[in-house]
Amino acid sequence: MLTVLVAVGAASWESDFVASLQHQRGMRVVRRCVDIADLLAAASSGRAQAALVSTALVGLDADAVSRLADRGVDAIGVVTGGSSSQAARLKGLNISVLVDAEAPEAIATALTEAEAGRAQHRADLPGHPDEDDMAAGAPTQRGSTIAVWGPSGGPGRSTVALGLATELSEGGASTMLIDADVYGGSVAAMLAMLDESSGVLAAARSANTGSLDADTLAQQAREVAPMLRVLTGLPRADRWPQLRPSALSVLLARSRTLAAFTVVDLGFSLEQDEELSFDTAAPRRNGATLLVIEEADRVLAVGSADPIGLGRLTRGVVDLREAVPGVDVEIVVNRMRPSLGWSQEEVRETVARFTGVDTIRFLPEDRSACDRALVEGRTLAEVAPDSALRFELGRLAGDLLGVSVADRRRGRLRRMLTGSAL
Which residues make Cβ contacts (< 8 Å) with residue 272, sequence separation at least 6? Predict the structure, then answer.
């Protein structure tokens, strides 16, 4: 028996639609829900397998769809008259399976498709190319997402994220840098973008209402270089509830279609104990961090090259693997300096012994270059193009791009000469 909830708002066709469902063999309507709160409460009962929703349902957003999924209920979109606008809105809310209100007999098949689609959730996210997008001439590329995480103590996550994003763009790759640190985003301040508007919150609001497309995302991001866009972070840490994981998932999917690389600067905490303090569905402050790590193609764990920093890094990698099982972590040891009295090989052996990660990258301490960049509100590439730190960040970017530092420099020189010739 297929059990369903119906929540289509004040649609004029609701009564006829529900009547046709009730006459179908093997299907039972558990409840007609009057609003979002009623729908989520009914979904929590565990009595339904699917929820039929439409754009007429006030308050329907990506977060509600995500909460239905958390309760094991598949959301199936109902459109009328084959409306393309309704279909686009529902797909923008992470609802990939749609049925027509005049063909309720297709719902059983739709539910089967929805269950099969769980295994391919990432490929089904809105923003990933499908046949309709290709026919409409939408972007068809699927970029890579790089999560930059690190434990507490300020190991230099934002410096690495900004430096890596800059070097990727300098290498000719379109790059989006997203500040998703829910405890203290600093990318805007590092680039002297000292305003109250938040790019990531604006994009998250659009994503939550199903209205975020590549053009909207491009407008909400700040272009700081010809190939580099930045979505600034939270203006205040207390606004973290507005950065919901469901909206951020849509945002990442859209960014993949807009940029070849999306670099995400994350907060330090991985705790998941909110349910200990709430009787109902709890807000998840660290949900955004965990979501990005789960969906990222590469995860960089940044730690500081001192006894305290390395201890936090090794424990943090263990915690990271517990929080996101199966994650493949790449370790970056930042602020390596001769005054520590340790060689890179000694640090590598120590970190590998506790984490099991053999491939470890080292970034040198370059305080004067970093200070100058912070004071001037510019990137390392602009204020210290020959710094040792910038060189190592360029090597990391080169590996991601599949080219050497020398090849990247020749490419930049070629573009500069071509531009001057024009």
Answer: 284, 286, 290, 323
Cα–Cα distance, 363 to 397 (Å, whole number)? 13
Query: What type of residue sits at position 86?
Result: Q
Q: How far is CA 222 from CA 183, 232, 233, 242, in A?
A: 21, 8, 12, 20
Task: Name the nearest CA neighbour of 253 among 112, 127, 420.
Answer: 127
Per the model's pLDDT, the better-predicted residue between 93 and 129 turns out to be 93
Output b/e per residue, 202-224; b: 16+ Cβ within 10 A.
bbbbbbbebebbbeebeebbbeb
Q: Contact, 408 vs 171, CB < 8 A?
A: yes
pLDDT tens profile 27-38: 889 999 999 999
Q: How far apart are CA 282 and CA 61, in angstroms?
A: 17
Give me the DSSP letters along 212-276. --HHHHHHHSEEEETTEEEE---SSGGGGGGS-HHHHHHHHHHHHHH-SEEEEEE-S-----GGG
pLDDT digits (tens, 9 = 90+) for 38-72: 999 999 988 899 999 999 999 999 999 988 988 88
Q: How big is the CA angle at 189 (ends 203 and 219), to the nearest 5 degrees? A: 30
Rounded CA gap, 197 and 232, in Å?
Answer: 8
Tell me the backbone φ, ψ of residue 405, rounded to 5 degrees: -60, -40
